[in-house]
Fold this protein.
Amino acid sequence: QKEVEQDPGPLSVPEGAIVSLNCTYSNSAFQYFMWYRQYSRKGPELLMYTYSSGNKEDGRFTAQVDKSSKYISLFIRDSQPSDSATYLCAMSASNFGNEKLTFGTGTRLTIIP
Amino acid sequence: ETGVTQTPRHLVMGMTNKKSLKCEQHLGHNAMYWYKQSAKKPLELMFVYSLEERVENNSVPSRFSPECPNSSHLFLHLHTLQPEDSALYLCASSQDPAGTGDSPLHFGNGTRLTVT
């Protein structure tokens, strides 16, 4: 079993739709959860960061963590063509030292105008 | 220049060639990383340097040789590569080696490597 599972897509939705991106994981020690966005021919950039369980909202983006189910989600409201990118989840058990991040494979998202 | 810059953007090399990838960060960070990104696979951490000392070597074959001469520069020296080494090689930096939300990774745009 992979440590982090993420549906690679591709996922295509019409402009204005609500998008739900998800990752599941097996390591119950993970406490720090991140979403990175990667545009074509660019490096990933941090989009959202949450610690432990709960929700975090930033504009049209909401990150949700359910540690009991080992499941994290990223919701995008009022999706725009500029949201078309690959979204990578990443997680870690520690916030310091040499604890490395574990990434998902990424979900490729296209918003259709 | 701002952020993390990588050169070259594209590289095609034969299996017997020797080449180097270069990364420079302009963020004043203390940690630098090499990642490998292959299609439909998670990002693979290859090497981590903290304050110019290697702190992680993730069982990477010896045909990949990193060098960190100072906290702003990172190189990946390549020799006798295999076709399966073709991938996007990403450099990243962070304030400290954790790379988590309080000290996130800042990635360059990568070098697309093709081994023929």
Remarks:
- The longest strand of chain A covers residues 85-92.
